[in-house]
Structure formats: structure tokens, C-alpha cells
Amino acid sequence: MSSLLIKNIGLLVTPEGCEARCGKQQGKVKALENAWVYIENGEIIRVGTGLAPITMGQKLDAGGRLVTPGLVDAHTHLIFGGWRQNELAMKIRNVPYLDILAAGGGILSTVKATHAASEDELADKAGKALDEMLSFGTTTVEAKSGYGLSTAEELKQLRVIRRLSESSRLDIMSTFMGAHALPPEYKDRRDDYVNLICDEMIPAVAEQQLADFCDVFCETGVFTAEEAGRILETGRRYGLIPKIHADEIDPIGGSQLAGALGAISAEHLIVCPDAGIEALARGGTVACLLPATSFYLNSTYAPARKMIDAGVPVAMASDFNPGSCPCLNLQLVMNLGCLKYRMTPEEVLTAVTLNGAAAIACADRLGSLDAGKQADLVIWDAPDLNYLCYRLGSNLTHTVIKKGEIVHAPSH
Ligand code: NIG
Ligand code: FE
Q1: N or C: which end of the chain has fewer CB within 10 A?
Q2: Is the pLDDT reported for residue 412 higher than 80?
């Protein structure tokens, strides 16, 4: 038996429970001064305040710092070849994201670079990104395919995710996203590509148990809401839980579809209409918002306050990818949640912990510091949550603990 007692916690802040928190509950967190956490075999056994219990195992002095649950990044495009720094000049000239894609750049250029990379190369590159995420306080990640766009190449990406989930210190959930873009060779026969996804890719992914979720980029020039519905329904029949990139640039019905399907999450929602917000609330769908993408695309920001007021649980994630958001730092996402969405630090914390976990079907075991949950925690170089959300551009992690083990510690 291994045990760890974290003591001398100045302030412990955590959402509570095993489900997404919505409405006013999103901002209600437990805050304990002078706290301790006792962990056995990677599981939180007890959280308390005042005098810490006398235990035999390892002890860690938090030095009066802030402790929160490990951060959950519920939306990343982790596996890709190359980068797209060449698009920066176009962005500066205000060339729209969808125009770059339509010209064969954007996602399609990353598809080429991903095809050219071996599984070893992709795993090595993504592994480095995971290490960096961990150093920023992220302990769980969702990773999507979607730079393959053929059965063999999509399966290749998903195998890399599986390999990483077996070797990485982070927990990784896997999403099949063959519907990330229309391959150029299907330009005039889009139905054939949707059929390929439904008849060949999804059955293969399910057969090899390579994904937990199915996602579609529902957008002008990419996939229509009708096509997205067909793909997600097919995925569901094969045991893949539906997710959807909706209302990122144009509102073409993605959020309404998400709600109607009861999708586990809808992503982006930058231009989500009121009817979409109502649908998400009715469907119990988590709104997984990606403010660093709005920042990077120089676009507007999702109506997070309206969503919270309407009872939609809001999560926030990085969207780490080589095009619309080459950023994996959830601390920056937290800053943007406050400054751009006007969410409170408490709402923001819930968004990147418990609600993020709910968006990837892990809220029963991750996302809060409740007894019985996996011991994923961050000790921050911060006295309180306001400070963590207020400082900008520094990495405030002090120590990161994953499954009860110290996986990132200060170097000095
Ligand atoms: O979530 N919107 C679609 N997919 C990604 C971007 C991927 C890319 O540009 O390579 C996103 O923003
Ligand atoms: Fe995305």
C-alpha cells in the first residue's frame, strides 16, 4: 500500500460531486483553509482541515499554497504532423480561417504532414506536448483523430492515442473525428465520404475499440447538420458517444443538433444562437468552450454567461491544434474565461475540472477532490483562486500529483 499526505494547504478549492455543475451551482465550490488531503493507492481517502492525521507513508508540505483538482483538457487535436507557422502571415492580413481551408491549406495541410509521419514520430511529438501540458497542471486530456481522413490514416492516429494512453502519466480519452474536413478527392461526391465514415471507419474504430467518442466539424464548407446527425447517430449505434464542433464560425444548426441528440458535449459555440442554448440545456449537453481559439482566430467569444444563466454546464478546454489554437496552456484559458467570458474564478475552476471531466464521461472518478476520486491535484504557486486567474502569462504550477504520485515538482 502506498500513501501520501499533503498537508499545510493554505487553501483547497474544488467543485463537488460526480456530475457536471450548471447554473448557479457552477460557481459554488468548496473552499477549505488550512487543509490536508490523505491519499492511498492513488485514491483520495479523506480531505480535512486543521490538524493533519498521523500517517506512516509519504508526506508533502504544500507550504500554505493553493490546491485544486488537476486540470482536465476536454478538447485537443493532440496528434498531428508538422506545424502551420506559415499561416501566421495570412492571419495578420485577415485571411479568414475557412478561406485558408478552402484553398487546400489549414486542416488539409496538416493532413498531409500527418500522413507523412510515422506512428513513432507522431507519438514522440504528442508525448512531448503531454509532458508540457502536465507541467502546466493538466492531468487528463481528450485527444481526437481527424488529420487522417482515410480509414487507414484515421486508425493510425487513433493507435497513437491508444499507445500514449498506455504509456503516458496523464489519463487520455480518445475521440474519432474522421469528419474533420472533406478530403479534396471527395469534393464533388461528399456523400461518398460520409458513407465511408459510416460504413467503414466507424465499424473499424469500434471493432478495434480505439475511441470513446465520435466528433464532427459541423460548419459551412465542412459538414452540414444533416450529415453530422447521420455520422453521430451511426457512431452511437457502434457505442461511440456523440460530440460536435458546432457554431464555431457559422451557426448552421450544430448546437440544436447536439441538444436534440443529447450529445455529451458541444464544442466552440462562438456564435451559438439562443435556440441552440435552449437545445443544449434541454439535452443536458455540456458546452465545451475554447476561448484561446477565439483569441487566436481574432473572433468573438462564446456567450458563456447566457449559457450559465440558461442552465447549460460550461466546460473550457484548450483546443490544442496546429491551426486555430497552437496553445496547450489551460491557465491561459482560465484567464480568458474570466476576462472574455466574464465568468467568476469559481465558475472557471469548475469549467476546467469537474465540467471538463463531465464532457469526457469521467466526472464519476475525476474533476474534484472528493473522497473516492482519483488523486489528481495541483499545488499552485498562488495563495488563492483569484490570484491564479488574475496573473497572466506565467506558469504557476508548483507540484502536480497524478494518481497519488508526484509527477511534476519544482526544479529548485
Ligand atoms: O477545433 N474546427 C475544427 N478543428 C480545429 C482546428 C483544426 C485545425 O485548424 O487544424 C478546431 O478549431
Ligand atoms: Fe477542435
Answers
A1: C
A2: no
